[in-house]
Amino acid sequence: MKLKTFLLLASCIIIVSLSYTWLLHQPITFLTLINNIFLISLTATIVGASLVVVQGGLFNGIAYSFKRFFARVTKNGVYAFELDGDLEYVHAPSYTFTYPLLLAGILGCSVTAILSIVFYL
């Protein structure tokens, strides 16, 4: 299943870069394709890495602290805390496309960086 997701995301990166080239009315050359695929892959890598950080639970403690602070400070929060007694811990969301997105982005960045070095240096 992850291979299908990876292939779908990799093909989406190529399609989005081609449409980006077409929308900007740039000539379709090998250099513009390499540049646009690199930019879209870099965006996918950043989004995938951000999702890995969120899934890892980095912000769970911060969210729990804010929830606890506002439960103690506001009047409604104090009433709710007195009734319930304890706050539930915030759990991180989980996404199935995180690692395929990160892998497709890293692979796209690597391949285009190698292609640009080989062909244009």
TrEMBL record:
<feature type="transmembrane region" description="Helical">
    <location>
        <begin position="97"/>
        <end position="120"/>
    </location>
</feature>
<keyword id="KW-1133">Transmembrane helix</keyword>
<dbReference type="Pfam" id="PF13038">
    <property type="entry name" value="DUF3899"/>
</dbReference>
<keyword id="KW-0812">Transmembrane</keyword>
<keyword id="KW-0472">Membrane</keyword>
<dbReference type="InterPro" id="IPR025007">
    <property type="entry name" value="DUF3899"/>
</dbReference>
<protein>
    <recommendedName>
        <fullName>DUF3899 domain-containing protein</fullName>
    </recommendedName>
</protein>
<feature type="transmembrane region" description="Helical">
    <location>
        <begin position="6"/>
        <end position="25"/>
    </location>
</feature>
<feature type="domain" description="DUF3899">
    <location>
        <begin position="34"/>
        <end position="116"/>
    </location>
</feature>
<feature type="transmembrane region" description="Helical">
    <location>
        <begin position="37"/>
        <end position="59"/>
    </location>
</feature>
